Amino acid sequence: MPEVVSERHPAILRVTLENFLSFKSSTVQLGRLSVLVGPNGSGKTNLLRAFSFLGDVARLDLPAAVEKFGGAAALRWRAAAVSERVRIKLEALLTTHASSRAPDEYELLFSEIGPFIQREESFVFKRVGGRGRRLKLSGAELTIGRGLRLQLSERTSGLATLRRLGEKYGAPQVEQLASILENFRVVEIDDRAARQPTPRRKGERLRADAANLANVLADLREREPETLEVLEQDVASVLPGFEGLEFRQLAGAEEGVEVRLRERGLPGSTPLSAASFGTIRALALFALLHDPAPPALTCIEEIDHGLHPYALDRIVERLREAAERTQILVATHSPALVNRLRPEELVIFERDVERGCTRVVPTDSTMLARQMKESDLRLGELWFSGTLGGVPDA
């Protein structure tokens, strides 16, 4: 059985979605850093929902995950026939011998038959030679390779169940995939929640809404003071007059912490509750991007919201550094941010208005680089001009 790659290195290379939400049939190529652009309603968020759904399948099992999303009809592309199955396929680097040309694979197909969910799943994990080891779950029967068979409940999913079995059932590899999906984090910063003092809890990861921002910053000060110093330098680069962070312990039923800002030319310090929207956003984003132990997959919605364009150079620099520790998906509508990207970091979505589905625009980084050179436009300007697609129809 192949060894599982260190948690620092797993990556999802491709996602194929059929009859899922706005996707009729599309494959999305992903890198360590992928920036999603496209009009409102083009499907960017629905890609993230695919990961969220699989995370619920791993955590709760398939029937509960389907119910949580409102039933199979709510998940199925509205123009699909009831008999057509929803299909989600992931191609990823999980095991030692997987490669971009021969990735590990996971595929889930399901449909609703009366009150029941009928599903079929398959896993392929790579080994030194050959096509890899295949695990296929159809109905109640799990088939492993050519000979080993196991009876499971027809209602359970392999993603939720196999991770709890022994090594001969692929448990270490399934656990690796399930862990990536369970810990998938979509960050949507709530500036009101992020302003507040928070209880002091060690080792806590930044929440999706950044409501525990004060605690995360205090934890960095205690556990990784050098990282906090770099974070403060980042904030100073985008916030004029910022000199540093100040931490105050709060008494009460449980220990709490308040974060305040020291600003040049002003006595005392400013509580986060009085800081600007952009200041809160910058602090939370830099805290996220300096996370020393992030999940394997992170997404940030509308990363540029509330930030001055001058902040984007530092943000993109930190995104690339963080992408060495966590695979990152970013959604944006900002040409200024896209201007700072490399062609291979851009993923373009469109809405096929005639068929009512998502279309992923095929791109080639070499072609994009040539178009930029010939047009004398930067990448964001080229996209915003409509040349590449992914903009609202006039």
Which CATH architecture of the largest domain?
A: 3-Layer(aba) Sandwich
Helix fraction, binned, reads 25-40%
Cα distance, first to last residue?
55 Å
Strand content: 25-35%
* SS class: alpha+beta
**What's the number of extended β-strand segments?**
18
Strand order of the largest sheet: 2-1-4-5-6-7-8-9
Largest sheet: 8 strands, antiparallel
Radius of gyration: 23 Å
**Level-1 CATH class name of the largest domain:** Alpha Beta
Mean pLDDT: 89
Tell me the count of domains: 2
- Large-scale geometry: globular
Number of helices: 13
CATH topology call of the largest domain: Rossmann fold
Q: Pick out the low-confidence regions.
A: none
What this model shows, in words?
- There is one protein chain.
- The chain is of the alpha+beta class.
- The chain contains 13 helices and 18 strands.
- The strands form 3 sheets. It has an 8-stranded antiparallel beta sheet with strand order 2-1-4-5-6-7-8-9. A 6-stranded mixed beta sheet has the order 10-15-16-3-17-18. Strands 11, 12, 13 and 14 form a 4-stranded antiparallel beta sheet that branches.
- Strand 5 (104-113) and strand 6 form a beta hairpin.
- Helix 1 crosses helix 5, helix 7 crosses helix 8 (225-238) and helix 8 packs antiparallel against helix 9 (277-289).
- The protein is globular and about 75 Å long.
- The termini are far apart.
- 41% of the residues are buried.
